Amino acid sequence: MRSWRMNTGGSGNVGHPKYDSGEIGLSKYDSGEIPRGYVPSVTNSQMSGEIPGASPDHHMMSPTGNISRRAPFPYVNHSPNPSREFSGSIGNVAWKERVDGWKMKQDKGAIPMTNGTSIAPSEGRAATDIDASTEYNMEDALLNDETRQPLSRKVPIASSKINPYRMVIVLRLVVLSIFLHYRLTNPVRNAYPLWLLSVICEIWFALSWILDQFPKWFPINRETYLDRLALRYDREGEPSQLAAVDIFVSTVDPLKEPPIVTANTVLSILAVDYPVDKVSCYVSDDGASMLTFDALAETSEFARKWVPFVKKYDIEPRAPEFYFCQKIDYLKDKVQPSFVKDRRAMKREYEEFKIRINALVSKALKVPEEGWIMQDGTPWPGNNTRDHPGMIQVFLGHSGGLDTEGNELPRLVYVSREKRPGFQHHKKAGAMNALVRVSAVLTNGQYMLNLDCDHYINNSKAVREAMCFLMDPNLGPQVCYVQFPQRFDGIDRNDRYANRNTVFFDV
Question: Does 145 appear as a known binding residue?
Fold first, then answer.
């Protein structure tokens, strides 16, 4: 609940705009002492606010939520300055923008309509309807500012494209109904059990097909506005208010999941277009392999050269293996004279990096009888993969975690959870649980992004695109997960039904 103290210095009849009931939750509004649409005037007056506490249920833009939302952890403010309890939260940004909007409205006055009345924000949007929450009344005076526009929108599909497909669905449904009617009314008497079993299977497949048609009948495409996200939460010259993200990468056997593939995934994560202090990469090695550990150490060193290169020249994709293998004109849209020279040098650096990784793989094929020995002479704790302590190593993100140009790099952490015989470790689910616990202690990002070791980030702005949904002031409180389309390289592009998932994501 929020309480307010107002010392007004002037008087006058000021038109009070109406706001949605879900935007601001004040105790006096709920008790009926003050009309719900009332907004205090700040013209010729002094206003002081006091927020003794804020509940996530009453906070429209609470940064704590469940890319997926991370479950809230108990919060204790150990800071000697109590005012820092809300520093850096998303709510402060939203509240500050509202106050600025009220001041601007009082200074400029109400915007007149053609009939002489003033504009009031739209009312009656359903708080539980995700799609309805993105439908705004563009006559709202506060939405005229670019920073108050929605961060995403639904893109309608032309009826000329979707209606023919709907006609095909109806035709299939009619044929299916005729077929099932024939099957049910013509039983096979001399093989009744077999007939009954086949009819049950056919009905089951028919129901599953019908359920599969619902998202195809009303397909939804969404478009994000990254410029509005930057204006609202990541303004140039100001501390970024974007939410922190912990990115999880899972791997088990480096001989089945090549370390060079895992390294490319990690490099694409470290090079994402997102504030470096808001990104943390956790690699789970569920096989406790020294090969994965050494490969990650090499990857962290190569990242010091790769990350500034791709950010300087805006390289896409930011996984080096797939960037250098592209058969495209890599000089297109490049205007810096130094790009060709730097690209050649970086390609050479990457080839040398691959040779070092290949040497580690070749060495790992011959396991010593006494087990692996680390550089300091101590045995590798994971020599027994089924009985070993937990291991955590921070490669980047502490002192010295800078690239070749002196800029900070995102955090990179190696995690191998403890395993003991006689306990059920729940495979990948257990590894994910361990990553959640470790990241909660080290960084505790508000959101988590889960990737496999061979799922590199193809779009460096993907995390920002997810934030357009998760941090949208109207849509965000209703959203729990954001899923990206999954694409595959090395697949026959002419085969629609191969693993490229063209039919699933596009058709």
Answer: no
CA-based R_g, the chain, Å:
29
Calculate ∠ Cα 42-45-49, nearest 5°: 70
* Tokens of residue 246, six digits: 């912990």
Residue-wise pLDDT tens digits, 10-27: 444 444 443 343 333 333
- Rounded CA separation 195/1 (Å): 65
Q: Residue 243: pLDDT band by 50, 70, 90 thresholds?
A: very high
pLDDT at 97: 67
| 50 marked ligand binding residue | no
Domain ranges across the chain: 159-221, 241-506
CATH code for residues 241-506: 3.90.550
Determine whether the annotation assigns residue 452 to a binding site: yes
**CA–CA separation, 472 vs 38, rounded Å?**
24
| Residue 357 contacts residue 298 (beta carbons within 8 Å) | yes
Establish whether 257 is an annotated binding residue: yes
Burial class of residue 418 in the structure, from the number of CB atoms within 10 Å of its CB (0-12 exposed, 13-18 middle, 19+ buried):
middle
pTM higher than 0.90: no
User: Annotation-wise, does 321 bind a ligand?
Assistant: no
- Residue 256 annotated as part of some ligand binding site: yes
